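INFO worker-7 received task bundle
INFO bundle size: 2
INFO processing item 0
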Amino acid sequence: MNGVRIIGGAWKRSKLPVADRPGLRPTPDRVRETLFNWLGQDLTGWSCLDAFAGSGALGFEAASRGAAHVLMLESDLQLARSLALTRERLHAEQVRIEVADALDWMGRSEAAFDLVFVDPPFGAGLSERALAAARPLVAPDGGVYLEATRPVDPRLLDRIGLSLHRAGRAGAVHFHLLRLAKLAGP
């Protein structure tokens, strides 16, 4: 089992285990550092959804930086158990873990989040469906973080009501910070 480290906040340098599972590629340190620079380092009071939690790198990073509520969804029971052990080790009371299919859960939820992390299993082709499912869960001033194998299609964003705020690339990973699209005036 490999690992990654939380790069900022209260649990800076804490190690997160990473199981060897198909499609599991934790968000690299450099990408997380860029994302949290875009967001601002302090997420105090935020509510976050880590829709395809995997190693929990994004959700635990958000909690480490002050997020008040982080819900992690993970369908793989072994990964969910690992997340629960990490939650316990860090005393991360603000983190909740549910064993659930992220697409199904998002499709039936009426919750609202300041930030939804969408990082489906690498190469699984779930990005478009996951973005469409995440969009209704975004609070009015909130956003969506997407990690994918290619840049997000602007036509897709138009169709589902999101706009590109920032984007970057690190190796094979394309990462995007998306906001709710502004409605055109009269």
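INFO item 0 finished
INFO processing item 1
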Amino acid sequence: MDYTYREILQQSTTWKKTLHYLQEKESYFSQFLAETHDNVIFTGCGSCYNLSLVSSHLWQTGKQIPAKGVPASEIFLFPEGVFLPQNQYLLFGISRSGETTETIKALQYFKDKFRGKTVGVSCEENSSLLKVADYQMSFPFAREESVVMTQSFPSILLSLLFLSLPPNKNIDDLSSLPEILEKYLPSGEKVIKDLASNLSFDKFIFLGSGPYYGIAWEGSLKFKEMSVTPTETFRFLEFRHGPKSVVDEKTLIIALTSQRAFSWEKEVVMEMIDLGATILHLGKNSLNSSRAIEIIFPEELLDDFSLPVLYLPFLQLLGYYRAINKGLNPDSPRHLTKVVKI
């Protein structure tokens, strides 16, 4: 068994370790959450930027504090589009290795130029990023051998979800996720494996809105990295405004539906089916269409706050099995290294 595959499949165990860590560190987290701030910025590169997109949406929803996710390079190259000098910020810098050049530079630049505190988030306890940051969050139990980011992504996302919990939620709303993943992973993997064996598709579109938009980008990136396949990513309704012109019988659309907007999203998906696309649908509610391939999570407790985490292993498996069917090695993706330094 190669290590990319192993690290995808062992995520329920890693998630349990993450939830235990969060409970142990709760008093420490309260220190930086108590820091005065009127805006929150999440930043990173690649998958960690996708993490920032998801986390910022859920933070603003849960904490009712303005939040946004930006690529790390924007912070020191175009800071005027990110910060206002009169505001006080809490800045989360996310890097799996803790050695990503742009993310370290972003935190250093922020500390020199703007008001607020920084939080370093990494899987490496002694990384350069954590040494620069005012506060540290480290997940050594989520370390990976894989070049592409697999189990560390949802582990970090779980931690940021925990920090952004609204008053009506607590960690119990997240604690069932490992067991739910274990329940659906075997059947979901079979669905993904069968679909990925079809090499006739030549267009791959990932759709997700709200907190699922960053998840769609991450699924798209995993597919691209592992299987060396071009992909596109859109919000559901935006896809109807021009991009749908590419849809035909060789198009696979990966639809990541929400609860809040399901009726709107379903309408888009059904239109794409009529245009000839094949649909892989991940959601809580079924499309009830024989022309869609579905992985459904009907548990009552799941909502648009917790559900996005569950989609990730299945999207990773899609990229993995596409690579295998193309004769590629997911452990050694083309042109990529585990740590990006400039």
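INFO item 1 finished
INFO post-check item 1: The first helix runs from residue 3 to 9.
INFO post-check item 1: Residues 176-325 form a domain with the Rossmann fold fold (CATH 3.40.50.10490).
INFO worker-7 idle
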